Each structure stands twice: as C-alpha cells, then as structure tokens.
Automatic annotation (TrEMBL):
Domain of life where this protein originates: Eukaryota
Keywords: Hydrolase
Domain Alpha/beta hydrolase fold-3: 137-347
Protein name: Alpha/beta-hydrolase
Organism for this UniProt entry: Apiospora saccharicola
Length: 347
C-alpha cells in the first residue's frame, strides 16, 4: 500500500498536523520578530524577506516530508483551460537506453503542461510561416517528490523567466510524474523528453528552445541533455540550471546534515531522504549510465547545448554544484558557464 494511503488511514496524521503547526506557528512569529532586527538574523547578509522565506519553506518542507504529501498532477483543464495541454508521448522508438524498455522501471505516460502567456500553435498546411517562437520548457524543483499548483506556479515562474529572457516568447511549465516506489527514475525524465518533443513537433526550431529548471527540476534538465546527446537527438539551443541537485545519494544527504548550512538553508534532510528513496529504483543494481542520469556529479558528458549553471554562495550544496560545473567545463567542446550569486541560499 502506498505510504500516502497508510498515512490517510491513520488518525495520527491529523494529530501530527495539529501538533506541527501548534509548535511552528508561534516559532515563525518569533522568527518574524527576530528577523526584523538585522544583527539577530541567522544569516546577517540576508534581508528580511529572504530570512522569512527560508524559515517558512523549511517548515513547509518538513511538514510535507513527514506526511508524504504529493501535489496531484493536473491531467485535465483547470483554472486556465485555454493554456492547459495534455501531451501524448512521442513514438516509443525514441525512448531508448536508460529511458526505454526493458531497462526502464516505468513506461512513458501523457504529460500535463501549462503554457504562458498563450499556447504555441502549429502552423496549418499552406499557412504562411508564423513569427519566430522562442520557448522555455520549465521543470520545477521539489526533491522530485513534491509538486506545486500548476496554475499559480506556472504563472509566477513563467513571468520571471520571460522578464529576464527578453527574447523568450513562450514558457511551457511541464508537470512531471513525482517520484514514488511505483514511479521511480526514469519516469520524470521520460515526461520531460515528451514535453520537449511536443514543442519541436509544433514547428519550433531546437535552437529556439531553452530547457530550464531549479533544484530537482534542474537535475531533470541535466538528465535530458545527457539523453539527447547520448542518443544523437536534436539538442536545444540553451539550458539553464538553477541550484541543480547534482548529488542524489544518501551519502551526500548525510554530509549535508552535518554541515552548518543544514541549520539555515531551505533544504530539509527528511525531504531529501524521501526524494532519494522514491527516485532511485529499488531491487536492481544501477548501471553507470543510470547513475549518471540520477546523480550527475562525477559523471560529466559532452553536449552541444550552451549550459548556464547558477548557485548561491550560501547554498548548502554549492560545493557539489561548483565541482559539477567544473567537471562539465573540462569536457572538450562543452560551453558551460557557472555563476555564483553571493549570499543567496539554495534555489
């Protein structure tokens, strides 16, 4: 029985909810007062907004991890029916290697996605060619196990992306399958590949596509880039990875739990442990190829796509991200730029 079903059948879940917020709400009020005084902030370099945002996210992630809550995927039109699309997987022969049968633990499935500000429409036969479309395909973070409201999150992320990428015309916020024992790797990568192939099928040139993601979503960006390069498929014009989760191993989480950052960053140990347990397939020995897809640190690969990687200097996993970027830069022909945003936490 799935863990979420077990939790929902136990009265302890309700008791935990009440107790958790009974303790944490007063604590957050205390932090609100404490963080209003700059010298008393946990990280003096942070402003009030970041200090409280980190505190709230830490509490939220701890709560979600303990009750094992996963945001349901939107597979039907919701609040934005004019921008929602249900994407059918491409031809099965395109799913090869670690993403294809019989190696894959999961099979491709339809993918729900939301366009911003409006859908890209394929030109009909005989119509004049449409204006140039430059599309960002976005995968959000959440340790591969937590989801976000697709309408609200797609609006916020897409607005941010189009504001800072002045040549971007559209953003496709794809909803990959959240990891579980039943849907481990490579389900989420299969979904990202499905979304990317869908955009190309609309007539958008690969050079006009940017793959973008944050944290666990950035892990999927790297996995898809690896797959496209390994299979000789069309690669996008660019890729952006914000605070990518590059070391998805139990050993890395143990090191993080002993670090100073684990006391102030948004990354929460129970959430990371859940993500690793759910995403890494059980009952089989992983090949080096599969390890590279799941945990890209120490598994650099060649690619044609220009890759931009960003991490905050106070990110609890900044060191591993920096090392991964160096390993990728050292591969002949790779175009990789690594940037550190000073005094920023994870993501």
């Amino acid at each position: 029985m799935p863990s979420s079903t077990i939790w929902s059948s136990q009265p302890f879940r309700t008791l935990y909810r009440v107790g958790f917020w009974f303790i944490n709400i007063p604590h957050l009020f205390y932090l609100a007062l404490r963080n209003s005084i700059p010298p008393l902030r946990t990280v003096p370099q942070w402003g009030y907004k970041i200090s409280m945002g980190v505190a709230i996210l830490r509490a939220l992630f701890r709560y979600i991890a303990v009750i094992r809550y996963q945001q349901p995927r939107q597979m039907v039109p919701g609040k934005t029916p004019d921008r929602f699309v249900l994407i059918t997987p491409p031809d099965a022969t395109l799913f090869r290697g670690a993403l294809g049968a019989p190696a894959a633990a999961t099979k491709p499935e339809p993918v729900g996605a939301v366009w911003y500000p409006a859908p890209v429409i394929a030109a009909a036969a005989g119509d004049p060619p449409p204006p140039r479309r430059r599309v960002i395909v976005y995968a959000a973070g959440g340790a591969l196990v937590t989801g976000w409201d697709p309408d609200e999150n797609s609006k916020n992320i897409s607005a941010l992306a189009t504001d800072h990428f002045d040549k971007a015309t559209h953003v496709l916020y794809m909803q990959y399958r959240l990891a579980s024992r039943e849907q481990p790797f490579p389900a989420a990568v299969q979904d990202f590949f499905t979304a990317y192939q869908y955009v190309l099928g609309l007539g958008v040139s690969p050079r006009d596509v940017v793959l973008m993601g944050d944290s666990a979503g950035a892990n999927l960006v790297l996995a898809l880039l690896r797959y496209l390069a390994a299979q000789g498929l069309q690669q996008p014009g660019g890729a952006v990875a914000f605070s990518p989760w590059v070391e998805v191993t139990a050993e890395a989480v143990q090191r993080y739990s002993r670090s100073a950052a684990s006391r102030y960053d948004i990354l929460d140990v129970p959430l990371l442990e859940w993500g690793i347990d759910a995403y890494r397939p059980h009952g089989k020995s992983l090949t080096q190829e599969e390890e590279g897809y799941i945990s890209p640190l120490h598994h650099p690969f060649p690619l044609e796509t220009r890759l931009y990687v960003d991490a905050g200097s106070l990110d609890g996993v900044h060191e591993s991200i920096s090392l991964f970027a160096k390993q990728m830069t050292d591969v002949a022909g790779n175009q990789v730029r690594f940037h550190t945003t000073e005094n920023m936490p994870h993501d």
